[in-house]
Amino acid sequence: MQEGDNMRDMNYFVDEMSNAREIFWTNPLVLDRKNIKQDGIQDDNLNAKDVDEAEGRLIRFAPYIERVFPETKCRRGMIESPLVEIPKMKEYLETEGEKICGDLYLKCDSHLPISGSVKARGGIYEVLKYAEELAVSEGLLSYDDDYSILAEDKFKKFFSGYSVAVGSTGNLGMSIGIISAKLGFKVTVHMSHDAKEWKKDVLKKAGVNICEYAGDYEKAVAEGRKLALADPRCHFVDDENSIDLFLGYAVAGRRLARQLKEQNISVSEECPLYVYIPCGVGGAPGGIAFGLKDEFGDNVHIYFAEPVQAPAMTLGLVTGKFENISATDIGLSGLTEADGLAVSRPSALVSPIMAKMLEGCFTVQDERLYPYLSNLGDLENLWIEPSACAAFPGPELVTNNLECHGHQDYNPTHIIWATGGSAVPEDVMKEYYKKGKN
Ligand SMILES: *Cc1c(COP(=O)(O)O)cnc(C)c1O
To answer: What's the CA-to-centroid distance between 409 and ligand 1, angstroms?
Structure first.
């Protein structure tokens, strides 16, 4: 592609975005395969070894997790979610749009134990790592111990001399809050004022301090960071820049590879994976994308989904400006009912990595989220939150660009990554459902 074409395309997409119209953008860097080695992950600073280390750490902690969160017993302390086929939802999507080539699955991080969202991957991992570092350097713990001893009072007392803080729109705060309080840390969650009431209630019950800020999410994070950095016994979980969060999410790649094998779903050039993940700052979907590329290389194609008013990563990638441009710079509000995605500026750590491996991005209007939610509930009895529904347009958008027809052996698997939902109280979910039915 010529320079001039790229520029014209960029202007077109930015213009559409600034008018809050839905777009489907394909990453020209990844399209033009000569430019880029797609075969596996290839970031300069992070690699498969880092993901191994994260996976190993989660295995060490499994006996502790199993002991203090009994709902993880069936998976022996692994915080993992089911992968389920959703054929009726596929039919529904096809009656609304066009035929989808291949099978449709839902990765139910909406039902991850402990906090009911994708944040139970990275968020919990980062706090476990901090706890391990403290306990090991104090000589209280060694790597080959049975980590279930961490549930003992001696450790709780030790951790109570330290604190953890995070800025969050909600789900990250829930994951960090619950695991930190369980270990014995003092924990503070810095929230924007518009965070959902029920999430604040859950946190208060778990013994978490909540600081609310009048401004938006970015401001809550900035204030939280400032306070935490002034205290050497406080660990700040930095949603916008944390490598630990990223690696905790990345472990999902290996876990998914195992699940696909168990379910006899093959992944190859003829049977590629298409994965669609709702995106906020990009940490969770970015880490997952990194882990998936590590496992499947060119045979996985990953797309991020964002609300039309908060297309943080899409805008950063389309313009190549990454974290140096915000949705508000092009006249958007940054506000959306998909509260997990209400972010205007993408992660500085993640956006350049995604520029090299993401197949594309698309945006979706808020009012489309609720019908997806209610139909998934009615047809598959799976209940997920509005943010987690942003990825549903993906399979059709991609199918329109695929040359499936006439290729008998071509059988893609589409995976919608459901990022949250099971922690939503029943009455709140009923309200969402009603909106979908209207
Ligand atoms: C946090 C979150 C996301 C996106 O994760 P980021 O790391 O912010 O990109 C998507 N869906 C839900 C439900 C979330 O809570």
So the answer is: 35
